[in-house]
Amino acid sequence: MTQHYDAVVIGAGAGGMCAAARLTVAGRSVLLIDENDRVGGRATSFEKEGFILNVGAIAIERGGIFDDTFQLAGVPLDIREPNPATVFRIDGKTLDVSKGGWAFLLGGFTKQAAKIGTKFADARAGDLPEARITTAEWLSGLTKNTTVHRLFRNLCAAIFAVNADELPARAFLVYFGTKGAFKRFGFCPRGTIGLWNDLADALREKGAEIRLETRASRINIEEGVARSVTFTANGTEETVTADVVISNAGPLATIGLVGPEAFGPDYVAEANRVVRPAANIVIDFASREALIDAPSLVTFGDTKRLCNIVDMTMTCPEMAPVGWRLYKAYAVPIPALGDFDAEHEIEASLAELHSEYPQSVHARILNIKVMRDGWPAQRSCAGYDMDQATPVANLWNVGDAVKTYGSGGTEACAETARIVSAAALAMLEPAR
């Protein structure tokens, strides 16, 4: 007989894992499937040559909904926070602005520092620019200073995987003015996958079923309702029924699983118009000598593509063999929301890395990954998100293409999971 679940969750990325966690903790029967051989989606880890390399997110934000999800599941967060959290590298010097804030950082480069600071205060009060104005355009109305523009560009790149001329200023100001703004974050010494494995183990103990290397092929709709999910594992096709279905595959992939006719032309047209996948370039390399003098995430003020770098081993020495330093650098191509020459962008990013840290020329390159297209850094740029709900009443999307406005990273995915799981539980309650 066909198995039945209260909920089937497609995709074990941050949104899918957090949604499955909340539903399982609420006592619902949950099946979580993912086509990959590990949990975590685009925010996971793998081992190479004795190094633990994070994929996607460099770090995990603390103090918000992500933390709350793990607490609900009774899972301790194995995360170490660097102190200070963030520093900036400008003209070859490292600046710690943890106490001085924006005014201290910008005051050395532009006379408009106070005015820029006022704009952040205005954002907190709800005074925001028009949605069509980009961060670069907004900033140009305040200062022409090149260093300030590159700092803001690299903040856009580090958080949202886009350039300042691609990100709406409204989204930037909402994030840095009213959201968490990545003030607290940390690293798991076992790699980010260690956190997901901990959560997965807890969910299994609580009764959830997690199937990896299992590819969803169809969400079956009958009379406007998602009735079942068909998937393939080990060459065998299987169909299970469910009361609710949650997709962490992204809106466009979800449309492919359902079929456009079930959603209707308006929703399909909106998804194709709104969703804008963002790209970045991840560079993992190792050195026996220290290149960075702080355990913090270093954001650059003199680069066009390279946005930040961190020495993972200053906080988590377990991530590298003894005697080695493990570095992770992020770059965002030009453009990040369109087609680009990957080889050229990699070369330009490496050139900037070598310019900032000449010793890195002799480093051991472990991995260079361009995250784009079907496996992007963000499924949709902040400010260009779909709603979590779909035209099918018991089918929702979670993840980084259905974020709340101005959100970013794994924290944004966890937030979508909280919203969707609450809606799913409200629908399931009458049936119980």
UniProtKB/TrEMBL annotation:
<dbReference type="Pfam" id="PF01593">
    <property type="entry name" value="Amino_oxidase"/>
</dbReference>
<comment type="similarity">
    <text>Belongs to the carotenoid/retinoid oxidoreductase family.</text>
</comment>
<dbReference type="InterPro" id="IPR036188">
    <property type="entry name" value="FAD/NAD-bd_sf"/>
</dbReference>
<protein>
    <submittedName>
        <fullName>Phytoene dehydrogenase family protein</fullName>
    </submittedName>
</protein>
<dbReference type="GO" id="GO:0016491">
    <property type="term" value="F:oxidoreductase activity"/>
</dbReference>
<dbReference type="InterPro" id="IPR002937">
    <property type="entry name" value="Amino_oxidase"/>
</dbReference>
<feature type="domain" description="Amine oxidase">
    <location>
        <begin position="15"/>
        <end position="424"/>
    </location>
</feature>
